[in-house]
Design a protein that fits this description.
218 residues; mainly alpha; 10 helices; 60% helix; 0% strand; globular
């Protein structure tokens, strides 16, 4: 597991189209949830975790290994987008001051959100539900973007291998990574619902029903 300090270019966001981001700044996040609901994304993470920890490499019965490669690509883009958003928040906080910057937007009503949203996170403390960007900053401080992307590629290789590859990451490190990814999924959902234009309610249309019949459910 790489633990050395990273050079500035290793933090480069190489998987995003910056010209598109100028027009649609939240596109990687909206694309992520247009592909599947949070319920299904968390189901994908459970299966990915299982395949990484065992010799079982059957992630998806119908679509085969390409399905997991696509999910890996989506998470890579999502991580890069969220990393950019944390940098933007830090810039405006330093420009206006924390108190004034936080006063620009009212505090979310968690009760209303839980009542009306299609899904509501249950793996974040109340403090982080109110301030998901602060949790993002904490995550990227503890788990730098290059390290997350490097480990994401390692667990992709492990999940698609017939034999366990134990030389890269320990079981504890793998579980810790997927715990972080589950929180990332919840944070991205909060940002999608509050800041992006494409948000989902219980009464509105949803990307899917949250159940993938071709998945090998763990």
């Amino acid at each position: 597991m790489k633990t050395s300090k990273y050079t500035p270019w290793e933090h480069a966001v190489a998987n995003l189209d910056f010209y598109k981001l100028l027009q649609y700044p939240f596109e990687p996040i909206t694309d992520f949830f247009e592909s599947a609901t949070p319920i299904r994304h968390l189901q994908y993470l459970r299966n990915w975790r299982y395949c990484s920890l065992t010799a079982d490499y059957q992630f998806h019965q119908d679509e085969g290994p390409g399905k997991l490669v696509g999910i890996y690509s989506m998470y890579t883009r999502l991580l890069e987008m969220l990393y950019l958003l944390t940098g933007e928040r830090l810039y405006y906080r330093s420009l206006y001051g924390t108190a004034k910057f936080e006063g620009f937007t009212p505090a979310p009503d968690l009760d209303d959100e839980e009542q009306y949203w299609l899904w509501f996170p249950d793996n974040l403390d109340r403090q982080w539900l109110l301030t998901p960007y602060d949790l993002l900053m904490k995550i990227f401080d503890k788990h730098p973007l290059p390290l997350l992307k490097s480990n994401l590629l390692i667990v992709l290789e492990m999940a698609l291998s017939k034999y366990q590859i134990s030389k890269h990451l320990s079981s504890r490190q793998i579980n810790n990574l997927f715990d972080v990814l589950e929180k990332i999924c919840s944070i991205a959902w909060l940002i999608n619902q509050r800041d992006a234009d494409n948000w989902y309610t219980k009464d509105g249309p949803a990307p899917d029903d949250g159940i993938d019949e071709d998945m090998v459910v763990r």
